[in-house]
Specification:
This protein is mostly helical. Helices cover 78% and strands 0% of the residues. It contains 20 helices and no strands. It is elongated and about 85 Å long.
């Protein structure tokens, strides 16, 4: 059984575990479906489902377990389809609603996620993981107070729920409440000193609090624990840039890009660092790359426009500001800088 399945189930798999009265090859497939992971589990679940030997909760269990494995592979649509069948066969399984909630969150469909977690909580009011997943959905919808309330409840139900502390840390950071954010990530780290993501999120909170030395120290520790996380190098690069240490910032963006060559944020950030050093050609090349990877990246158009303006290439600057405004008519910086560039053309 995969660790992800254990996490998703959060101890509530008993309602769906099997086989019960199934025998022969179907029983062997159900054992593999339940105990294995990845493609082996998916194949075994499919054989069990297609055998015609399963009914009721046994069939629901096969769909459920295959849905878990599809979700672990990032195939949210197939996961949701399997959870649909499991719920049709067993509509009183809080665990299946909770995992479909998670799959909808993974897909970005947070309204459906909330509805499913509501059902999971209705069926099992003490289900901490359902509160956690609903908190994830509320945070992504920008309803930060409801997200925090759900993380609060998850923690009340499970005071050692380090992922809930970590996510509440992130959400307090979103609200600008850096003191509460730092306290929550510190608690997550106390519970698990090797939890890299908590160091990343505490580093982010320290950065927002303008405590850049503590931020960099946390990013350092996160990188020691997970040296292949491109986003952490990018975040540390931002902290170095805000300290004025542009060389260290560029080195971190370089590493982020080596680890993830399609990381358009890192190209944009490296472009900002190069422009701050006065290296406009390198900056423009990075902005070009960021826009090539994400043609709807408003900030990159603004930043490229700024670099063109610094080179007195005002027509190109205005074209970039125009594109930023087309993508986001409320992009105030693009509107302001376009007006400045137009004024510079007249003089």
């Amino acid at each position: 059984m995969t660790l992800s399945r254990l996490l998703y189930s959060f101890g509530a798999l008993l309602a769906l575990s099997g086989p019960a009265l199934v025998t022969g090859a179907a029983a062997d497939d159900m054992d593999t479906c339940h105990d294995a992971s990845g493609d082996a589990a998916i194949a075994a679940c499919a054989r069990a489902i297609n055998s015609g030997r399963l009914t009721g909760n046994d069939l629901a269990s096969a769909y459920y377990n295959r849905g878990i494995e599809y979700d672990a592979k990032g195939d949210s649509d197939r996961a949701i389809a399997d959870f649909n069948e499991a719920i049709r066969l067993n509509p009183k399984s809080a665990n299946t609603y909770n995992n479909r909630c998670k799959a909808y969150n993974d897909k970005g469909d947070h309204d459906h996620a909330i509805a499913d977690c509501d059902d999971a909580i209705r069926l099992s009011p003490s289900f901490a993981f359902a509160y956690f997943n609903r908190g994830v959905a509320y945070r992504h919808k920008g309803d930060l107070d409801r997200a925090i309330a759900d993380y609060d409840q998850a923690i009340r139900l499970d005071p050692k729920y380090l992922e809930a502390y970590n996510n509440r840390c992130k959400t307090y950071g979103d609200k600008g409440d850096t003191d509460h954010a730092i306290a929550d990530c510190s608690e997550a780290i106390r519970l698990n000193a090797n939890y890299a993501l908590a160091y990343v999120n505490r580093g982010s909170a320290y950065s927002k609090a303008h405590d850049l030395d503590h931020a960099i120290a946390d990013y350092d520790q996160a990188i020691r624990l997970d040296p292949n996380a491109a986003s952490t190098y990018n975040d540390r690069g931002i902290a170095y840039r805000n300290k004025g240490d542009l060389d260290h910032a560029i080195a971190d963006y370089d590493q982020a890009i080596r680890l993830d060559p399609k990381f358009f944020f890192a190209y944009d950030n490296r472009g900002i660092a190069y422009r701050s050093k006065g290296n406009l050609d390198h900056a423009l090349a990075d902005y070009d790359q960021a826009i090539g990877l994400n043609p709807r990246f408003v900030d990159a158009y603004i930043n490229r426009g700024n670099a063109h303006a610094s080179k007195r290439e005002l027509d190109r600057a205005i074209a970039d500001y125009d594109q930023a405004i087309r993508l986001d008519p409320n992009a105030s910086l693009a509107i302001k800088n376009r007006a400045i560039a137009v004024s510079m053309q007249k003089h």
